[in-house]
Amino acid sequence: MYSMTTLTPRRTAILTFIRDRIAQQGQPPSLAEIAEAFGFASRSVARKHVLALTEAGFIEVNPNQARGIRLLNQPARPDWLDVPVLGRVAAGLPIGADAEVHSRLQLDPTTFAKTPDYLLRVQGDSMIEDGILDGDLVGVRRSAEAVNGQIVVARLDGEVTIKRFERHGDSVRLLPRNPAYQPIVVGPDQDLAIEGVFCGLVRQG
Prior knowledge:
- The chain has 205 residues and is α+β, with helices and mostly antiparallel strands.
- It folds into 2 domains: 4-71, Orthogonal Bundle (Arc Repressor Mutant, subunit A); 82-202, Umud Fragment, subunit A (Ribbon).
- The chain is 19% helix and 34% strand.
- It contains 3 helices and 12 strands; from the N terminus they run H-H-H-E-E-E-E-E-E-E-E-E-E-E-E.
- A hairpin with a 2-residue loop joins strand 9 (159-168) and strand 10.
- The chain is elongated.
- It is an enzyme of class 3 (hydrolase).
């Protein structure tokens, strides 16, 4: 096994970049992101450095994955959360639910107010005043109940959206946090189910 001192400064910096990206975002960088970060002309230059780190025993690479880099001989982080990314959720108009597990992320539990059961990727901008942006991964804790004002993931007539929940008597509205969007008024003949409550988000660069 090589030590850090046997690596060139550039490869040491690349290894540090990989470690930092995993720590901050829960997943490794792609070759394209490494190339961009270090000003390489192509991914093939990044691949050469990654191969050298593989041969040195610092990482291993799954060639069938775009983000197939995995750190070796790292101290265990049993306190980190292993959270599945299930798909996408609309922050605009509802879109079809996608419950397939796309990937898993290793995340610091302090990222969330409560421990999430899964993550969903936001599509749309109707929640921007709550700081939820297009492309964010929102942490969701499974719950069939919600209180007024909570941000929820709701299934309405089989489609999923993220909104603020509001109930007055038998009347339920799903409220956007962007003045460009109108509240969704749930009709008496519509099928509404609360899938879970929002408990934090991950923003990936």
